[in-house]
Every structure is written in C-alpha cells, then in structure tokens.
Amino acid sequence: MPPTMGRNGSLLLFAVLLIILDVFPSVNANLWTRHNSNAYQTRRRSGPSNRCPKVGAIKNFDLERMMGCWHVVQYYASTEELPEYACMRSHFSFSKDDQHITMNFSYIFAEDPLREKLVGNITWMIPKFEEPGHWQHTEDIYEGIYNTYVLDTDYDNWGLVMHCAEKKKQPRYLSALLLARKPALADNEISFLRGKLPQDIDASFMFDIGQESCDNLMESSRDDPLAYVVNGRQNAKEIFKIVNKL
Fold it and tell me: Which of 176, 188, 156 is nearest to 69 (CA)?
C-alpha cells in the first residue's frame, strides 16, 4: 500500500502548490511581454544607464577624406521609437581658420505629402588633434558635453558615426548615423557596420532612411514664407505638376 500523508505533509504540499501557481503565471506573463509588448521593447531600448557608452574613435583617422557629401541610410536616436525621416543627407566640411568641423544636413518627414526639405547644421571642435575622430559640439544649446565619435569608415563607401550627451536631470541622448556615399549600401556592408554599434544601441531601432525620389523636394521661399520653390523654380503650374507625380 502507498504510504499515507499526515496533516503536516498535506499542509506542506498545499503550500508548495500555492508557490508554483503564484510564480509560473508571472513568469509566463513576463515571457509574453518580453516577446510581444512594445512596452518591454521601450524599456529594453532606453536602458537603465544615463551614462554614455565607452567607445573609441577610429584609429589613424584621415579627417579630410571624411569630408564631403553622405547619404544617411540608417538612423538611431534614443528619443525616437518609429521611423520618421526620409531623404536625409549630410555634408561635412572642415575650416582651417577655426579648426571646426561643420555638418550641414537636410531631410524630410517621411509622411509629409509636400515633401518639404528641412535643413540644419551642427558644429564640432576637435578636443585632441591626436584623436581626430573624436569631436565635441560647440553649440551652447546642448546641456553638458556632447561627444561625437567616428566609429569606422572606409571614406569612399560607408561610415558610422555615434553621438552621445549625458544630462544632469534627463536621460542621456544617444544617436547613430550609418552613412553612405551612394543612396544605398549592400546588405553585408550594413550588417558589418551595425555589428560595430555599442551594446547600448538596440539595432532593431536602427531605422532605414529612404533615399528614393529625393531630387524634387520643396523648400520654403526666402522672399515669401507662404510660397515654395522646387529646385530653384517658383512656378505654380510646374510645382503643381511635380507634386501630383509624387
């Protein structure tokens, strides 16, 4: 005959069952959340750290060869969770007078039916010329020190740049640009560069930046803020034709 279980044994078994029932649903829920919830992805993406990742700029960096025009084919920013941009391009230049690097950039919002081109610029200084691939922003609008690193480039085809700023009362700002001299890169080149990102950057949030139909973009006219120009022309009929083709 099987052994009988006393009162104490029954209570112990009951307690074990309660623990199992209490633990396993939460484990299953966490697993479901981990793989299916946007909330989990947001937590994993932002991370607990407010400090910038420790990275090093590319060695033996040739600053002059990095200058010129680049297409931004992929983009990451710690403050953004959905792809928003298209036709993003950057032009780097170096001034020997003040030893500053300037990036003039342009982009459009991907969902903008008018495809209006927006522009901006960023200026850096080189804190140590023995490390020319490490730059710091010169603008006063940024809180704290805003560091930029050229992580890798072959100068003629692709490049990878990372920005990071630590803030006193806000989470760090972290971003990365995957650059190409042409509008697109091969899949193996993209995989190679994404593999060089620090672990703080979740590559699943490294969004593609479309570079299609980026030649006919609208710009606000300098003379009339309500008018638009397309490739330097300000002709209503021509603009209407171009907009209808987009």
Answer: 156
CB 75 within 8 A of CB 177: yes
Beta-bridged to residue 179, according to DSSP, are 72, 159
The total of other beta-carbon atoms located within 10 Å of residue 83's CB is 16
Q: Please, which residues have CB within 8 angstroms of residue 173's CB and are 6 or more apart in sequence?
A: 77, 78, 79, 146, 163, 164, 165, 167
- Please say whether the beta carbons of 125 and 149 come within 8 A: no
Q: Over the stretch 85-115, which tens digit does the pLDDT of each residue have?
A: 999 999 999 999 999 999 999 999 999 999 9
Three-state DSSP class for residue 204: helix
User: How far apart are alpha carbons 137 and 148 in whole angstroms?
Assistant: 8
Contact criterion met (CB below 8 Å) for 119 and 130: no
- Rounded Cα distance between 209 and 191, Å, is 16
Could you tell me which residues come within 8 angstroms of residue 100 by beta carbon, excluding any fewer than 6 positions away?
A: 94, 123, 124, 125, 138
Q: Return the pLDDT at 94.
A: 97
| Structure tokens belonging to residue 53 | 């990742």
Residue 80: closest CA among 150, 210, 173: 173
CB atoms within 10 A of CB 95: 10
Instruction: Note the pTM of the prediction, 2 decimals.
Output: 0.70
Q: How many CA atoms lie within 13 A of 42 on its CB side?
A: 7
How far apart CA 124 and CA 136 sit, in angstroms, is 5
